[in-house]
Amino acid sequence: MSKRFKQLQEKIDNTKAYGIEEAVTTIKDLKSAKFDETVEIAMNLNVDPRHADQMVRGAIVLPNGTGKTVRVAVFAKGTKADEAKAAGADIVGTDDLVADIKQGIFNFDVVVAAPDCMGLVGQIGRILGPKGLMPNPKTGTVTPDVATAVKNVKGGQVAFRVDKKGNIHAGIGKVSFDADKIQENLISFLKEINKQKPASAKGRYIKNAAISLTMSPAIKLNLSEVADVK
Fold first, then answer.
1. Is residue 103 within 8 Å of 120, Cβ to Cβ?
2. How would you classify the pairing of strands 110-113 and 72-75?
3. Which of 101, 120, 202, 206 has a 20 to 30 A CA-CA distance from 180?
4. Angle CA(161)–CA(162)–CA(166) in degrees, nearest 5?
5. What is the pLDDT of residues 110-142, one digit of tens each?
6. What pLDDT is attached to residue 4?
């Protein structure tokens, strides 16, 4: 453990679970990197994603954005392509975009697709899937309204999905944000996770939750308070 990390660790009381407001105030005090660190949330849910009815997955547009510049590629043709360009898409294409991706050109962070282009996207599913780039209706990235999808992604949409062990990890802002803006984003994210609780999930839904910066130790969140965010 580095000296810097130890110094940051001393600012956190590892014996307690922090309330949301105190956790956000504390996280602001952990900035140590020379770049604008991302505020990250990590959670472990009491679900078994092997069962389809316990797959927690979705997307939310954070009220204050993520602080990241997101490059969006859109599979669309005709008027839908024009709408995507007008909404600010960085790349719009069909067969040409497929060809670029097959050649390993990935100058984008998110892929959006109109439903009538999913046949094309399917050709590169094995390439996009492992990179977490495959469009999906549950995250709003397969939709006839490509313009709104582009605006949402550009405006701070965060997609989330539990892994095999029930973990969820997402960036919810930047340490340079005002504390109230970080708190608003955190509460919005927690609301969405709570809303997604599967009916078949028994017992305590959120087993643990913590926030951290890119280069900082984690701050444990009070699970009772987290569960009450509705």
1. no
2. parallel
3. 206
4. 170
5. 999 999 999 999 999 999 999 999 999 989 999
6. 86
